[in-house]
């Protein structure tokens, strides 16, 4: 039989990982990259316009946890690599596994559409268009990520008369020297940015509308994620894993409500990793507020009744899924609010041969999960495993949606939320079932 042709969209970590596994399986692989470099979000000032990296960005997990299983970081790389280290690592990965020759740079995919009728039982065939060029593939792996389309809060844009920007646009702290800065959010980017600018700004406020678990970067002289990885085992109850992590975070930082955070709600708490923000708040380099009640010009009023004027408002308010290249009707759900109807976060029911890689938020390094997803897809395309029926996939999606709704806060971020230990077990179990179906 002729080799299957596989299209991979995006030359970031997810795309390179997917291409590596597809190529190793013997498929004819083409990687389409919109820019002139690999690395995706880890390429600072990437000319593809889709990177949210800032000059001081470091990864949140240690290099041991972050590396692909068969390609460790070099010994000289720091424990928490920065974006330069990550770009170099991904470049070395691409060279090591012969991926560079597969990449078509400056190739913007304008459309992906089916060239077959699944209702008639026809084999998958997908038409991929870039510029004036159209090619057909047996499968398409979309690895363009979900962190490039900022989610804006209308009141910030419409009512704040000073400098407004989304955290996606933030690049370096020098731009805010001597300014009065308000950062909204309490995720990784928000805390990084607040810690970045607070040293040289006139004053910096951080608005934490929810209560996080703030994990330290180091504990007992070790990367925190190197410690917690030892309890990430499927045979340990999830409640135990969470309790141990929360207890270690409490040992490191104590009761965060004493710093001004809201008391924890009943929902599962959001995890943020930052090495300095707790000290910045304790030293009053960063002033913590719980919410914004109104904005008039440059004046922002907070829920405690106080008001302050600011030069800059930086909104770390998350992202929304943006898939302009996919033909209408391929993926159902509510992409605007980060809900995608995908079986195992990968497959749109009814459309064999189309796979979404990396469309999730999780509690560990992404590369590990990219590998599991790529191997899962590889087995389907090798016909070692067979997807369940469309009806079965939709039932599974509904069950996952109900679980997310009952477990997490009802926010757009949590539409893509996954704890990695149970999710990887899901993938392994479904692979075993699909192999029996085959």
Largest sheet: 5 strands, parallel
Helix content: 25-40%
| Number of helices, counting only DSSP H or I runs of 4 residues or more | 11
State the separation between the terminal residues, measured CA to CA.
19 Å
Low-confidence stretches: none
Number of strands: 24
Secondary structure class reads alpha/beta
Percentage of residues in DSSP E strands: 15-25%
Coarse shape: globular
Q: Which strand order spans the largest sheet, edge to edge or round the barrel?
A: 3-2-1-7-22
What is the CA-based Rg, rounded? 22 Å
Task: Please state the average pLDDT score.
Answer: 94
What is this structure's SSE topology?
Layout: E1 5-9, H1 13-24, E2 28-32, H2 63-66, H3 83-96, E3 103-104, E4 109-114, E5 126-130, E6 133-137, E7 139-142, H4 154-159, E8 163-166, E9 180-184, H5 188-197, E10 203-207, E11 212-215, E12 218-219, E13 222-223, H6 224-228, H7 238-253, E14 270-273, H8 277-282, E15 286-289, E16 292-296, E17 299-302, E18 307-309, E19 312-315, E20 333-334, E21 339-340, E22 354-356, E23 361-362, H9 366-381, H10 390-407, E24 417-418, H11 420-437
Parallel strand pairs: 1-2, 1-7, 2-3, 7-22, 8-19, 9-10, 9-19, 10-15, 11-14, 23-24
Antiparallel strand pairs: 4-5, 5-6, 12-13, 16-17, 17-18, 20-21
Helix pairs in contact: 1-9, 9-11
Structure description:
The protein is 29% helix and 20% strand. It has 438 residues and is of the alpha/beta class. The strands form eight sheets. It has a five-stranded parallel β-sheet, with helices on one face. A five-stranded parallel β-sheet has the order 8-19-9-10-15. The protein has a three-stranded antiparallel β-sheet with strand order 4-5-6, with no helix packed on it. Strand 5 (126-130) and strand 6 form a beta hairpin. It is globular.
